[in-house]
Amino acid sequence: MTDLAQESPIVTSRYQSDAFAARLRRRYAAERRFKLAGMAAVGFSLLMLAVLLGSIVVQGLPAFLQTQIRLEVNFDPAVLDPSGKRDRQELAQANYQLLVRNALQSVFPDVTERGDRRKLSDLVSSGVAFHLRDRVMDDPAVVGTRQSLWVIAADDVDQIVKGASPRDVVETERRINDRQLAWLDVLEANGALRTTFNWTLFTAGDSREPELAGLQGSIVGSLLTLIITMVLAVPVGVAAAVYLEEFAPKNRWTDLIEVNISNLAAVPSIVYGLLGLAVFLNLFGMPRSAPVVGGVVMSLMTLPIIIIASRAALKAVPPSIREAALGVGASRLQMVIHHVLPLAMPGILTGTIIGMAHALGETAPLLMIGMVAFIVDVPAGFLDSATVLPVQIYMWADSPERAFTERTSAAILILLAFLIAMNAVAVYLRKKFERRW
Amino acid sequence: MNIRTAVSPTAATTATHSAALAVAGTRVKIAAKDVKVYYGAKLALKGINLDLLESKVTALIGPSGCGKSTFLRCLNRMNDTIDNCRVEGLITLDGEDIYGRHIDNVQLRARVGMVFQKPNPFPKSIYDNIVYGPKIHGIASTRDELDEIVERSLQRAGLWNEVKDRLREPGTGLSGGQQQRLCIARAIAVDPEVILMDEPCSALDPIATAHVEELIDELRENYTIVIVTHNMQQAARVSQKTAFFHLGDMVECNDTEEIFTNPRDERTQGYITGRYG
Amino acid sequence: MQLTVLLVVLLALTVMGYHMGRSRAVAVAGNGVRLHSVPTYHGLYVAVWAGLPAFLLFALWAALQGSVALHLALSGLPADLTNVSEQAMSLLKADILNLAHGVSTGREPHPAILAAARHYNELMALGHWSLLAVGSIVAVGGLWIARSQISVSLRARNRFERVVSVALVLCSLVAILTTIGIVMSLLLEAIRFFARVSPLEFLLGLHWSPQTAMRADQVGSSGEFGAVPLFVGTLLITVIAMAVAVPVGLMSAIYMSEYAPAKVRAAAKPVLEILAGIPTVVYGFFAALTMAPFVRTIGQGLGLGVSSESALAAGFVMGVMIIPFVSSLSDDVINAVPQALRDGSYGLGATKSETIRQVVLPAALPGIVGAVMLAASRAIGETMIVTMAAGLSANLTANPLNAVTTVTTQIATLLVGDQEFNSPKTLSAFGLGLVLFVVTLSLNMIALRVVQKYREKYD
């Protein structure tokens, strides 16, 4: 700057003073701190998400593996079919546990004491006897044969082999004693010990024994419940949205309905459970624990969500479409069904899928209507007792056995997988059919 | 936001120019040299050269969309808040490049204040609206100092008598004209050197407009004022210098009287005679 | 599965009606005579007449048939069996139903009850067959009537559309019905509860131990139903959750709407939404299994006594769950503040953080308060996290390191499992449910009103 332009008036010196500059630096420092706080907040949220998902993944992945032991089972006719008649009743009631014991004994003939023999049998799951029985009932011709079978190991064995329970601690702190460990080592050396994919998790129903417990019952239960929810909530919800958006006059009644819907969307889910209990179970006498009741309760819960999402989708269709349809002489209903609804369909579909995903993860109301019982069989119809996946997770979470902890985490991973799939479909549909008006 | 091309005029040449004018009796407060503004790929201002003189009111007139407001917003770097806006060229305040290293935009905006088209008082009390600026810049901190600033600013804005008894009431409770004068008082409270006004009266009724125009004339004594206006009569009433903008160009800049009685460019002539709006 | 057979028959009749109506309409139109409505509508009209009355009859009959049959079966029993307490009566009903469905009750059934069960089954079978007959007659009758009305001038489309309009209105009324259902069921059961336990004791009492007498006819229950520890527990956990969610959610919203570059915002926002989509049972599991031991270890390291199920663990995890809620609501609210206010502040030479703290946030305050209230309502109504992580002991404490229980946990645990429906214990759950509903509803309504007023200010 030349000195001709140097005649700065006194009033500007304030903003060019050192004091001002110092203050400005402090202000910018405060600005940086504020921005940092914002980033920290976002970072904290992402961190918590990572910790949550990470801990569940780490805990749950081992559950997808199951330890198995190979036994040479002698389907001794003397034990199974002493009369030689191959009578089904007799076969069903034979002592299969003895076959298991004998098979193990054949590997470890020097185990004679009663207590030790017990410990030896404890290496395999208590359900193995039933599996052997099922095998014989399916095909009685195996009686009299020797089969080499891979059977499920007991949950304590499973945990030790997978490393979830520590091996190198004092015997009293383990559930598997030293002798049992020695036997396991022998089995392993013989190639009779392996860990494979845990199909039981997907094919079996619930069980008290962790190694026999599976999710098929709850997955099917969830599916049946969701079907009912969808069949009830979607038509009613879309119809209500259509009415409110296209036909309803703007009067007090409509306002009342709208206020109702936004309130219902915010009611705690457990209150819906109370409603289900009082009205559907007690008043209407519907079967407790059935997907039908669960579905009805969930549909009431999902209804406001679907109505709100559908209304938004309908609102997004520009009025010019409606006017054009009416202009060529369509009736109001025809205009809505032939013109507006198809255009709003992607939005409605997305909202429906998100509502269903929400319903899939709900637990509390289904506890109230009884879907929390211990149910072993896979439900076959809408009226059978069933449970759903989140409730199964809740029940397993309560179990003390270590092996159930990893199975609960695995069940959570499966539930999350379903939810991710549903949301991905919703996002895909939205992206594909999104129209920019 | 600021891309200085290699061939832009330097601060030195501007200073020389200012010096020349200083000799002639009027200082250049803000000088714009070859200022271009891009919105994305679209060129909104095509190279503006304009000097804004100290203690004078300069009016920027022209049809809608010709870039007057855009240019105005360059002068206090308000275009920085718009994401895809890019400014090129040189703008100096007292000879210093406002996009340069020596002037920070917080500091700049304290020296170059702005009044907007639609009055935008904060949802605070009248008192708090006015002391907001002085507080953040640290101009005053004690209660007495702040009271004094409030009274002085409201006096200068011609609003003191109307609101002196209700300083604690919300600023949004005033009438449109009062709100705009409040915004002017708010801008004055920070003690700027320049006040930019973007169509300050377009949202006001005629009586309020008259008040504000009177105010502008009084303010001229202490501040440099640049006013964008749609209303040619208003430009003729309040300004000493007028610049006519047309489709992103600054067509003509001259004494107000000259522009309105003897325009040199035919585009200016066409606008003034109302051939196009 | 007999009901499905009936449904299939009805459906078949409806479809048949549609086709018959349509073909009749085409026949009438014959030689270039123009119908008022396209034949499809005639078909739909007939289908509606065939299906709708029959279906309504079906629904009503099927719903009531069970209770009527049970009532008749009971009336056939000798008086000494039926003149018993309410509790024994419901046991009796359950026995009859179980026997009728072939489920063993584990006891040797009384011959009269066995007979009643058989009677019930006979009645049900009779009912089903009569329904099939009557339903079919109604369907066919409706079909006939409608078909005979088909003519050139029949405004079939209008009539059909009127039926559809009524259906649409009814669907909208489901929302009101649901609310009425909720209110009625909560109120009625709660009133029965308050007949046995005074409301004052409930709302102000300091001891919660709902164990009631084992014998049904014992006079007076030994349970205490003072719900204050539950209210305090709920409040404690909600406060902890808000203390986590509000600062984090608000600052996240501010950062993402004011500072973050578009790419960061586009990436971070959906990830935050994932937090909202994770089922609460997962959060509960995480809180119980990972968070609570973690809090315990830290507490013990600091020399503090932490119980294994602490309010802090549950509250913290609940706070994390609510973050996206607060964040997205605040985001909407902050974006609603007009740019003009921000411009005014920048024009005076304020920095971004000064503008946000002193202009934008105060302007957005009502909206943010509304958002916080909605989030609090969500926290109060949350069940799974607290049930799994906060425990069942009704401590009256303000120490976040203790175990507390909440209103929702108690509702869940009181009603899970086989309880007779009328003991004070199970009814207390409805009392709690009523309080919960009223509190969350009030919070929601106030919050929505606040947010609405705020939006109106800036539109």
Task: Report what the structure shows.
The complex is a heterotrimer of chains A (437), B (277) and C (459). With 437 residues, chain A is mainly alpha-helical. The radius of gyration of chain A is 33 Å and the shape is flat. The N terminus of chain A is likely disordered. With 277 residues, chain B is of the alpha/beta class. In chain B, the strands form two sheets. In chain B, strands 6-7-8-3-9-10 form a six-stranded mixed β-sheet, sandwiched between helices. In chain B, strands 2-1-4-5 form a four-stranded antiparallel β-sheet, sandwiched between helices. In chain B, a hairpin with a 2-residue loop joins strand 9 and strand 10. The radius of gyration of chain B is 19 Å and the shape is globular. In chain C, 77% of the residues lie in helices and 1% in strands. Chain C contains 16 helices and two strands. The model of chain C has no long low-confidence stretch (mean pLDDT 84). Classes of the chains: A mainly alpha (437), B alpha/beta (277), C mainly alpha (459). Chains A and C meet through helix 2, helix 11, helix 12, helix 13 and helix 14 of A and helix 2, helix 6, helix 8, helix 9 and helix 10 of C.
Summarize the SSE layout with pairings:
The complex is a heterotrimer of chains A (437), B (277) and C (459).
Chain A: H1 13-16, H2 18-60, E1 65-74, H3 77-80, H4 88-92, H5 96-107, H6 114-121, H7 128-138, E2 146-152, H8 155-162, H9 178-189, E3 193-197, H10 200-203, H11 216-247, H12 252-266, H13 269-283, H14 291-316, H15 319-327, H16 332-360, H17 364-368, H18 389-398, H19 402-433
Antiparallel strand pairs in A: 1-2, 1-3
Chain B: H1 11-24, E1 28-39, E2 42-53, E3 57-61, H2 68-75, E4 85-93, E5 96-97, H3 105-111, E6 112-115, H4 126-137, H5 143-156, H6 160-163, H7 176-189, E7 194-198, H8 206-219, E8 224-228, H9 232-238, E9 241-246, E10 249-255, H10 256-261, H11 266-272
Parallel strand pairs in B: 3-8, 3-9, 6-7, 7-8
Antiparallel strand pairs in B: 1-2, 1-4, 4-5, 9-10
Helix pairs in contact in B: 4-5, 4-7, 5-7, 7-8
Chain C: H1 2-29, H2 39-75, H3 79-82, H4 86-100, H5 111-148, H6 156-196, H7 199-204, E1 208-209, E2 224-225, H8 228-259, H9 262-277, H10 280-301, H11 311-336, H12 339-347, H13 352-380, H14 384-389, H15 407-415, H16 424-458
Antiparallel strand pairs in C: 1-2
